Structures are given as structure tokens and as C-alpha cells.
Amino acid sequence: MHFLNKLVVATIPLVPRRIIRFFAGRYIAGETLEDAIRCVRQLNSEGICGTMDVLGEDISTRAEAIAAKEQSIVVLHTIAKEKLDSNLSIKLTSLGLKIDKQFCVENVRDILKVASRYGNFVRIDMEDSSCTSDTLDVFRTVRREFNAVGIVVQAYLLRTEDDVRELVKDRANFRLCKGIYKEPKEIAYQSREDVQRNYERLLEQMLTGGSYVGIATHDSVLVDAALALIKKHGLRKDLYEFQMLLGVRPELRKKLVRDGRKVRLYIPYGEHWYGYSTRRFKENPAIAGYVFKALFTRNR
């Protein structure tokens, strides 16, 4: 499958956009907010929560960042109006992180003010390693003012254990994922087994430290390890949740729901679906393989 993944990625520039859209359709709610609403409503009917994300990271102008902020605010208004069980995920590069960090902080603060009004929650996504320190700085800054905000950390980065040790002191709300970006061995674990071991260490550190954790993985090994840790420490079901990407491992998420676990799906949407899709395929060829296999499955 490794060869097939690379082959799919290598041919992406030659593939018509409509074909890419077909490949990506399983993993993206659509191009409009209405598409995302329909997706969340369907998931809610199945007992699954959502976290909505407007695609379009890594903008280059203040006007684009302000537009992205306004889109996020519209999402929060819409979640409340439609009475959806969903929160919001944001990427700081779409809000001006690489233009001016303080400008980004103000944009995030404006979003959190609206979320606070509705009693909703906002998750700050983690991007590639060039953004890690600044993203954590922004998170710490806004969390002094707002409680309903969380952070994502990546188990494959060597630095994450130290970051988590500090964040747990303040009982930060985490999404723990493996990490998708290609990073050098000097700063990131390279083998699946090393990443899995670190993920388990970090998860136990978070759970025993009193933090709420979004256990974000499609890896059955890590799901089983998480369930074992939950049992070991006698944790209530309201102290954690499982999180997955839209369209990935539907059979696993359904099993978790049947077992009474809280499950939340990441629901990206927007007109920038093409850039998002092709970047993700290139950053992690395994995703291209998942997409290819998805063409031959009917279970959505």
C-alpha cells in the first residue's frame, strides 16, 4: 500500500479537480456552511458531536485574516441558531499568526467572546512545527481570559512531553493527535511504534493530571490503550471523548458510540477544499491511500 499511496500523491497535479473532489468528498462536508450544517445534523442524529472548521489556513493579508475571523463567528452564531451539538476548531495561520502574533490574538479573542456568549467551546488547532511555539503562546494568552478554549498537541514531536507537563499544571483542555506534518528526525519521532508509545505516555499524563482530553486517533492500538488507561484510572465518561476525522474508520466510531463513549468528528468545509485536500495528501501519503480504499467501500 505504501507504493500505491506515493503513486496517488505523485499523480495529484495531473488529476482533474472534479476527481480530487470525488476523492475528498468523503472527508470534507462541502463548500458551504449549509453543507456543514447538514453533515453535523446527521451526525447528531447518530449520537455524534461535531467540531466545525472553515478551511483556508496560511493566509497572507490582514483582510483575509479578518474575513476568516468573521466566518468563524458566523459558524458560532449558526451552531446556536440551529441548536447543533458542535463546537468550533480554528487554525491560527488563517487568523494572521504569520503576519503579526498580537493581531492574531485579537482575532482569536473576538471569536472567543462570541463563543462565550453562547456557552460554546473553541479548539485551537496545531499546525506544522514552525507554528508550535507561537500557537502555544496565543493559547496561553487567551486562556487567561477565557476558559472554554482548548489546544491540540502532537504526539510525534519530541518537545510535546515538556509542553504537556506545563499545560497540565493549568488543566488545559487537550486534543491529543499523532501529528500529520512531515517533520525531521531531530524534532519528531519517525516510527509508528515510537509515536504510539509517546501518545500513550502523554495521554496518561493528561488524564491523571485532571485535564479533559479529546483522544484523537483512528489507530485501533491507541484506542485500545486509551480504553485500558480509562479503566485503570476509573475515569468517568464525562472526563474525555474520542475524536476522529469525517469519513475515516466509521466502523470504529460506531462501536465507540454503541459502547456509550462520547465521539466527536472534525468537520472541515469551505471553498478552499482543493488546497486543503492536496496539501493533506502530500503531507501524509497514507491519507491518499485511505481515500483510494474509500472509493471501494459503501459505508459512510
Question: What would your notes on this structure say?
Answer:
It contains twelve helices and eight strands. The protein has helices at residues 2-10, 17-24, 33-45, 62-82, 101-118, 132-143, 160-169, 192-208, 220-232, 250-258, 273-283, 285-294; strands at 49-54, 86-90, 122-124, 149-154, 174-177, 213-216, 240-245, 263-269. Helix 1 packs across helix 12, helix 4 packs parallel to helix 5 (101-118) and helix 5 (101-118) packs across helix 6 (132-143).
Q: What share of the residues lie within helices?
A: 40-55%
- Main structural class: alpha/beta
Q: Which strand order does the major sheet show?
A: 1-2-3-4-5-6-7-8
Mean pLDDT: 90
Number of separate domains = 1
Major sheet summary line: 8 strands, parallel, barrel
| Unreliable residue runs | none
Quaternary structure state of the chains depicted: single chain
Work out the helix count: 12
| Name of the CATH class | Alpha Beta
| Backbone CA Rg | 18 Å
Please give a quick description of this structure:
Helices cover 50% and strands 14% of the residues. With 300 residues, the chain is of the alpha/beta class.
What keywords describe this structure?
single chain, 300 residues, alpha/beta, TIM Barrel, 8-stranded parallel barrel, 12 helices, globular
List the helices and strands and how they pair.
Blueprint: H1 2-10, H2 17-24, H3 33-45, E1 49-54, H4 62-82, E2 86-90, H5 101-118, E3 122-124, H6 132-143, E4 149-154, H7 160-169, E5 174-177, H8 192-208, E6 213-216, H9 220-232, E7 240-245, H10 250-258, E8 263-269, H11 273-283, H12 285-294
Parallel strand pairs: 1-2, 1-8, 2-3, 3-4, 4-5, 5-6, 6-7, 7-8
Helix pairs in contact: 1-12, 2-11, 4-5, 5-6, 7-8, 8-9, 11-12
